[in-house]
Amino acid sequence: MASSPFSEAAARFAGSPWAVSIVTIAMRLAVFRQLLPLQGTQGFYKYNEQARIAWAMVAGYGFSSPWINTSLLPTAQQPPLYPWLLAGIFKLTGPYTYTSLWIIELCNVIFAALTTVLILKVGRQMFGSIVGVLAAWTWACWLDVAVVSLRVWESSLSALLLMVGLSLVLRLKPDAPINYWLGFGISAGVAVLANPSLLSVFIGLWLWLFARQGSASCAGKIVLSIVFCLLTVLPWTVRNYVEFHRFLPVRDNFGFELWQENHVGEPDTNEFNRLGEIGFMEAKRDAAVQFIRDDPQRFVHGCLIRFVHFWGDPTLWVWLPLSFLTWLGCAFAVRKKGWEATPLAAPILLFPLVYYITHPGTYRHPVEPIMLLLAAFAIVTLAGKLRPARALNL
């Protein structure tokens, strides 16, 4: 049966990167206006660690002071990329101003819109147009996703950088130009400077490349991409060594993050000021390790709870079913594509690991584009299985 002109126009509209990007932008701007009336601007981001560091840079203290009531001294508590972006905005339009907040949110909106385009592209490449369109439009219109993407945090940027990495790694065939391999390495380094937890994903992707393309010529290109990733991160690592006399590749707060969910008592800024940042982070790490050793059963129970929260927050009855579809889509993808499904499976399997042992917070957002792609693939696959069965019953 021939398609009607209306259905053809609707299909072109649904598959248009411009259309879904415009809807992504419009949805997030509408949400932002609802969330932040004029009176609420400072409470939204004044005490945010990344914004606080940006304020310190603009005020002349350098990359320092992630928390209020602490000494204005150099810090490695946060990765540098998003605070640098905020500092540039604060420099132009003033720290914590309403204008600055609008510019920050416009940046987040642009990151989200570009992510939409990459969801559409990667979905088409991996699974076909229907999956790409379904995932992209869900990303564009889902309220929960829109709200999280507007946080004054690196979430939207990290989601974009991870999708850039996936888009690039899918191009890395044995005959791919060398600039593709270098671009992948640099994109990995930039992503790590935004969110070090993404390193686990890129390590998984490099291992996949070695396993899939093990020839000597490809191995050299893979190693070169790793070298360019390290070179991208190196200046920040050198800065940390100069400031703290320790090898801190990106940030130093793992001990504190581990302690937050594995401890008794409350944090104390006086302790931070007394011990200094490195001493404070090491003290919290030691306390957390001791807590885990004293009660490993409680730690395992806590990991299970964090697993549920990572995949189920903020609304369990919505996100747990979506997560189930994500894992089901991952299984379908592995069965259909084998090793070729690794670029989408790796983020789902590797990225959350650190949050299972520390705390999940609202840190799932960077992998939510991949969740939507895999969930859409599961839905399309299940629909394809049901359609023949229905036809037989007619």
Question: Brief overview, please?
Answer:
With 394 residues, this protein is mainly alpha-helical. It is 75% helix and 0% strand.
Features:
mainly alpha, 394 residues
Overall description:
This protein has 394 residues and is mostly helical. The chain has a domain at 156-248. It is built from 19 helices and no strands. The protein has helices at residues 5-14, 17-35, 41-45, 49-58, 81-93, 98-127, 129-141, 143-149, 155-169, 178-194, 199-212, 216-244, 254-261, 269-294, 296-312, 316-337, 342-350, 353-357, 368-393. Helix 9 runs antiparallel to helix 10, helix 15 (296-312) packs across helix 16 and helix 16 (316-337) runs antiparallel to helix 17 (342-350). It is globular, with a radius of gyration of 22 Å. It starts with a helix and ends with a helix. The model has no long low-confidence stretch (mean pLDDT 91).
Report the β-strand fraction as a percent range: under 5%
Structural class: mainly alpha
**Oligomerization status of the protein chains:** single chain
H-E order: HHHHHHHHHHHHHHHHHHH
Individual helix count: 19
Separation of termini? 20 Å
| Helicity, as a percent range | over 70%
Low-confidence stretches: none
Q: What kind of sheet is the major sheet?
A: none
**C-alpha geometry:** globular
- DSSP strand count: 0
Radius of gyration: 22 Å
